[in-house]
Amino acid sequence: MIILVLDNLGGSLKKSIRNIVGKGRISEKDVKELNKEIQRALLKSDVDVRMVKALTDRIKKRALDEKPPKGASAREHIINIVYDELVNIVGKGTEIPVEEQDIMLVGLQGSGKTTTAAKLAYYFKNKGLKTGVICADTHRPGAYSQLKKLCGEVNCLFYGEQESEDAVSVVKNGLKELNKTEVRIVDTAGRHSLESDLITEMEEIEETVGADRTYLVIDASIGKGVKKQANAFNDAIGIDGVIITKLDGTAKGGGALTAVSETDTKIAFIGSGEKYEEFEEFDPDSFISRLLGMGDIQKLMHRAEERLDPEDMDMESMMKGDLTLKDVYQQLESITKLGPLKQIMSMLPTGPQKLPDDALDITKEKMEKFRIIMDSMTDEELEKPQVIGSSRVKRIARGSGTSREEVNELLKYHKMMKKLMKNMRGKRLPMNKMMKKFGR
Ligand SMILES: Nc1nc2c(ncn2[C@@H]2O[C@H](COP(=O)(O)OP(=O)(O)OP(=O)(O)O)[C@@H](O)[C@H]2O)c(=O)[nH]1
Ligand SMILES: [Mg+2]
């Protein structure tokens, strides 16, 4: 999930930003060092040299010229500047409306269209829209069964005609067949390059679909080449947005991301794996927040909203420092629904690096055990875990059919969560800024 660009830039940025901690007004030397780190990381990710130079020049100028806002430390000030400037260079994302629509996917051979069709179907299905996918790839023999299989996994409707050679007629029939669905996604055949007869077919399909949105699917591993492709397709048929795939497998992601920002189009989604969940809306704000180690609260909130009943988990209370075991109990239930703990933690502002490694390897079985242990506790113990001494530990272990070690492990886990939530709250400036941005 955490893509390579983030790893490159994130790690070194966090380190150099940490070095600024505790100092007064930022010095020229600090800015220089930070900029060196930024340059190294971005160039490694294939971001354009001129762009990197311009970015670090702006950061330097602003860091030295602008006075930190009242009350902000040098570190908070520089984080804000870097954040603004980075959001600037990756460009704006596009609005992804959650409404009835027809979507068409185009792109070069092997760029990830078919995989993305299933990912998009899953995405809109999760938003509560009835979704169907049409296979308009009548060129590649395996295309039909590949897409059909993926749709089966995602559990969305599928339309295709295995024997047909006429993509336009398949699309016509498919739209009729799927007229009860709200989102229809058309997967087209891969283009070897932009040859004129293929452009004609693409145009014909587009006309038939009357696509509300045509997305160009591009493989991130071509790095800066993304720009040329995006412009060529845009000139040929007009595209509404770019979907960059395979950001998990390449260090060139930085090149791909920034190259699109130089074109007339915008990045709509990014794919970061072969699985249908490994896909997200491209949101520059949250992208950069993650880079700077501010965590991705917004995404976590979204995910929580998608998968949980609203009453299930209250993020606000999760972030309160006074976490009881009852909260932990509820959290454990919620968290299992949200996904692997390690992944959730990586989205939180503190990141996983501040926690002991084994603390995150809480398996489902262990969570289950924790809950059984808590069932053997009294209300008082759940509310005020500090009253639990060694004799109570013994009693609880016996009562729940577990061991003292396991009870102690739970108590340790509670302490850790409590600290984590407190830390999250303590991230003053960036957190507040983010929350404001996201209307919370
Ligand atoms: N690692 C990774 N692999 C991906 C991603 N998206 C697609 N793939 C893989 O890339 C390969 C090609 O994907 P397809 O979806 O078949 O590409 P396509 O554009 O439909 O290909 P054609 O129909 O032949 O033009 C497959 O092996 C996919 O599993 C991604 O985000 N990350
Ligand atoms: Mg395909």
Automatic annotation (TrEMBL):
Entry EC no(s): 3.6.5.4
Segments passing through the bilayer: none
UniProt entry tagged with the keyword tRNA processing: no
GO molecular function: 7S RNA binding; GTP binding; GTPase activity
Domain of life according to the entry: Archaea
Binding-site residues for GTP, renumbered to this chain: 107-114, 187-191, 245-248
GO cellular component assignments: signal recognition particle
Compartment(s) where it occurs, according to its Swiss-Prot or TrEMBL record: Cytoplasm
Chief localization: cytoplasm
Catalyzed reaction equations: GTP + H2O = GDP + phosphate + H(+)
Cited SMART domains: SRP54, SRP54_N
GO BP: SRP-dependent cotranslational protein targeting to membrane
Keywords: Cytoplasm, GTP-binding, Hydrolase, Nucleotide-binding, Ribonucleoprotein, RNA-binding, Signal recognition particle
Signal recognition particle SRP54 helical bundle domain location: 5-90
Residue ranges occupied by any SRP54-type proteins GTP-binding domain in the UniProt entry: 100-293
Family membership noted in the UniProt record: Belongs to the GTP-binding SRP family. SRP54 subfamily.
Free-text domain note: Composed of three domains: the N-terminal N domain, which is responsible for interactions with the ribosome, the central G domain, which binds GTP, and the C-terminal M domain, which binds the RNA and the signal sequence of the RNC.
Described purpose of this protein according to its UniProt entry: Involved in targeting and insertion of nascent membrane proteins into the cytoplasmic membrane. Binds to the hydrophobic signal sequence of the ribosome-nascent chain (RNC) as it emerges from the ribosomes. The SRP-RNC complex is then targeted to the cytoplasmic membrane where it interacts with the SRP receptor FtsY.
Quaternary structure, from the entry: Part of the signal recognition particle protein translocation system, which is composed of SRP and FtsY. Archaeal SRP consists of a 7S RNA molecule of 300 nucleotides and two protein subunits: SRP54 and SRP19.
Protein name: Signal recognition particle 54 kDa protein
Organism: Methanonatronarchaeum thermophilum
Lineage: Archaea, Methanobacteriati, Methanobacteriota, Methanonatronarchaeia, Methanonatronarchaeales
